[in-house]
Amino acid sequence: MNIPPPVRSDDKYKESLIEVRSREEIPEAWRDTPIESFIMAQNFGWPIVSTGKVELLIATCIEFRYALPVPRMYAYVIRRASGRVIGSEFSVGYTLSQGVKYLVMIGHNDCGMSKVYEKAPSVVQAFIDQGWDPEIAEEYVSKQASRHAINDELDALQAEYIRLTNVFRKLTVAPLFVCLHDSKLYIPKWYAEEAKNLPQDSKVPTELIKNLP
Ligand SMILES: [Zn+2]
Q: In CATH, what number does 7-111+152-210 get?
């Protein structure tokens, strides 16, 4: 099994992430919320106690090298390639109707979606093996690859954070990054700045909603 090096010693990530080494490093806005409990469970093994009131939605990648540290009755979960929820806004809306107030979105290092184009031929072959016509499989994969591909895991997380906070103006969104080497959570350095620039207007532009996939 391919486990990447720790992000703290990886040139690609080490300058861009803040390791959460104590409770004090958790941003003020996340304290005393299920976001804090989630980080403490993941990084320090604190037990999560379910109150029976589900206020947290977790969005992360389908990645098999990452297992969520949550018990039942604690959180809704959306797992999609790359962890971005674009195209799953209805699912988010449903969880909001059920009492969700916080969204934790987790990117990770060595994401397969940053290598979609190099993996495309084997994905095409997988569809062909399922009985798909080769030409149709090729066409489908090329269309989907452009939708799913990301250049850089942290940049993709940032763009999705900005997009989501525009689409859902009252939801508290916490962008996190998990290191596949040791499953520790980090906070992207750009978060502090981006969090100051959240849209002030409570009304979401109609065009933004109409253009959702
Ligand atoms: Zn991934």
A: 3.40.1050
